[in-house]
Amino acid sequence: MRDYDDLVSEAAAADVDGWDFSWLAGRATEERPSWGYASRLGAALRGARSALDLQTGGGEVLATAARFPQVMVATEGWPPNAARATALLHPLGCAVVTVDDGAPLPFADGAFELVTSRHPVAPPWAEIARVLAPGGRYLAQHVGPASAFELIEVFLGPLGEDHRRGRDPFAEAAEARAAGLEVTELRTERLRIEIADVGAVVYLLRKLVWWVPGFTVERYAAELRALDARIRHDGPFVAHSSRTLVVAVRA
User: Which of 22, 87, 115, 195 could in theory staple to 237 by disulfide, Cβ–Cβ 3.0 to 4.6 A?
Assistant: First the structure.
């Protein structure tokens, strides 16, 4: 394994825009949920005439679909990702609209047969219900509770119950029902993550900025060096993500 400074400086200079994690090939792995979100997304898009993908990131997941509906729109709130998504998705027939997280969606009531999202920051249930046509469907993969907490707690210390109750799938389902949606499928799985070097840790924390807010290599140098030593001695660092599949229908 290369030395600490080499690994960290490389990761600190890497491009972290978009939702492409190929930089981590051979350096970190994460199990995938059994339901195969990308396959289900592709099938749902093939069966719809109009669809909206919320918080699309750089558009990488949506772009895996073999075919888009006649009307295909995606939203993204972070300008670098919106630009990346536009370059990727426009040639495929998808319009990209910049919408800040939590802002009202700039679409008419009942405009879409299908609304999708992979890892939304916070599902805007009332807006999802509003823009869905009667009988329309919401298909999404959400981040579940206590995801990657083993790694996050290395930097932030033990997280309290308020953090652990966040992203509770049953609470999210209740919010969806309160907005007028019928939840027809709700599944959560816990998935193994293995991180093989400290550079991969730096890359992840730079990309997933909500894991350790305010993260910089300089601020957390002591924790990074301790984690580097631990990986060299014990092997890959193991954490666990959690993912929730949500399918809901507007009456």
Answer: 195
Domain ranges of the chain: 4-250
Residue 61 is given by DSSP the state T
In a structure prediction context, what are the per-residue pLDDT tens digits for the chain, which is 251 residues long?
A: 999 999 999 999 999 988 889 999 999 999 999 999 999 999 999 999 999 999 999 999 999 999 999 999 999 999 999 999 999 999 999 999 999 989 999 999 999 999 999 999 999 999 999 999 999 999 999 999 999 999 999 999 998 888 788 899 999 999 999 999 999 999 999 999 999 999 999 999 999 999 999 999 999 999 999 999 999 999 999 999 999 999 999 98
Q: Which pTM was predicted?
A: 0.91
Helix segments in 157-212, DSSP class H: 161-164, 169-178, 198-207
C-alpha span between 133 and 112 (Å, rounded): 6
Paired with 187 in beta bridges are 245
Q: Which residues lie across from 185 on neighbouring strands? A: 247
DSSP state of 104: P
74 vs 108, 132, 155, 161, CA distance in Å? 15, 14, 34, 34
Give kind and range of the element (H or E) at residue 184: strand 181-195
| Class of the domain covering 4-250 | alpha beta
